[in-house]
Design brief:
The chain has helices at about 1-15, 60-70, 115-125, 165-170, 210-220, 235-240, 270-280, 290-300, 325-340; strands at about 20-30, 40-45, 50, 75-80, 95-105, 130-135, 145-150, 155-160, 160, 175-180, 185-195, 200-205, 225, 245, 260-265, 285-290, 310-315. It folds into three domains: about 1-110, no CATH class; about 125-195, no CATH class; about 200-340, Rossmann fold, CATH 3.40.50.720. The protein is α/β, with parallel strands linked by helices and about 350 residues long. The two termini are about 20 Å apart.
């Protein structure tokens, strides 16, 4: 979501003389640095933001985006080095794979363009789906057309196509590509992209290690809320956080389905008081610093805690990387949160069979 926010910011700052195009990854096979949904906004003056690869395709994508602007017509390009020939497509890819990129001219302030749709998704701050035509053999004018769906029970039609198949994307929270027949436009290939809101992190504590946790989360673009005593927190935390509240005001923090919390007060009594309340929030992830024996003692005093099914409560908290410093601990904790949301074990990739990323 951070990349989407950056693209929106650049889009909104564009002058009326600028023309824009959006390059977006719509299909991947085998190895690729970026996955479906990666985007790059290009201006007619040669500036760009975002990315569709690790740097090997951006130069060519810049030229093709400007061509799409000049022709005022969307197009797709397939970058394929699966046979190992790095010179096959005129650019060198860092890994053998196939990447299909859609280049779409963007008409500023047109409510139907993709970036305007993404602006709506960011504004609602809840999960949404972006439906996009990525292949149209009989009617190229609909290539790149998008529709934002913000409600499971919302309007389920698009270009004369029944979108009931999007229910699977809602439930699994993973992108899907389908082919469907439109009575008006013929056979279309549709990408349904699951857009999750920014991860909302509740950092509960006011000691010096909070600074490292907030700093790393801010770099990742997460929404940060801090719970602690204001007089103990540095100015940086106030400048970076959406809000800072006292321990007794934790209930004031707004929550959605991507809200997580870290108890890092280093105060046994505060943790013991807040933990049952946080568990009742039914967060997808809740972590608490400290050894397991500390938690066992807490449970002996407050009684068993009812952890909701499908929710993760972690103490000790973080992936096992041997973290020692506040920065390393923050890295281990935030990596664990990502692994929970992506439903991954958090182990080294050398132990994984098959491809790095799941296929759509």
């Amino acid at each position: 979501m951070k990349e989407i926010r950056n693209i929106i910011q650049r889009y909104e700052s564009a002058s009326s003389e600028e023309q824009l195009a959006l390059a977006s990854v719509v299909h991947v096979e085998e190895s690729s640095y970026r996955r479906i949904g990666a985007r790059m906004l290009v201006s007619s003056n040669g500036e760009w933001i975002g990315g569709i690869s690790g740097g090997c395709l951006e130069g060519d994508a810049l030229k093709r985006s400007q061509k799409a602007i000049f022709n005022n017509r969307p197009s797709t390009v397939v970058y394929d080095t699966m046979d190992g020939d790095r010179n096959q497509i005129g650019v060198g890819l860092g890994c053998n794979g196939l990447i299909e990129v859609l280049f779409t001219p963007i008409v500023q302030n047109n409510p139907e363009n993709e970036i305007e749709q993404l602006k709506k998704a960011v504004a609602i701050n809840n999960p949404a789906l972006l439906v996009k035509v990525i292949e149209a053999d009989q009617c190229s004018e609909v290539l790149g057309r998008t529709k934002l769906i913000t409600d499971v029970e919302g309007d389920n039609t698009f270009l004369d196509i029944d979108l009931s198949f999007t229910s699977e994307v809602w439930s699994k929270r993973k992108n899907r590509i389908v082919k469907n027949e439109s009575g008006q436009y013929g056979l279309l290939k549709i990408l349904v992209e699951f857009l999750k809101p920014e991860t909302r992190l509740m950092v509960i504590g006011d000691n010096y290690d909070v600074h490292a946790m907030v700093g790393l989360a801010e770099e990742m673009g997460w929404e940060i809320y801090v719970v602690g005593r204001a007089k103990k927190l540095p100015k940086y935390v106030f400048n970076t956080s959406r809000a800072v509240v006292d321990f007794d005001e934790v209930d004031r923090i707004p929550r959605h389905s991507y809200t997580v919390a870290i108890l890092m007060t280093h105060d046994y009594n505060i943790d013991k008081r807040l933990l049952p309340q946080l568990i009742k929030y039914n967060l997808p992830y809740l972590g608490m610093l400290g050894p397991k024996k500390r938690y066992d003692k807490m449970i002996a005093e407050v009684g068993p805690l009812d952890i909701p099914a499908g929710r993760r409560f972690c103490t000790p908290v973080g992936l096992e990387i041997g973290a020692e410093t506040p920065e390393e601990i923050a890295l281990a904790v935030l990596a664990e949160i990502i692994s929970v949301f992506r439903d991954k074990p958090g182990t080294s990739l050398i132990y994984k069979d098959g491809t790095i990323h799941d296929r759509i």
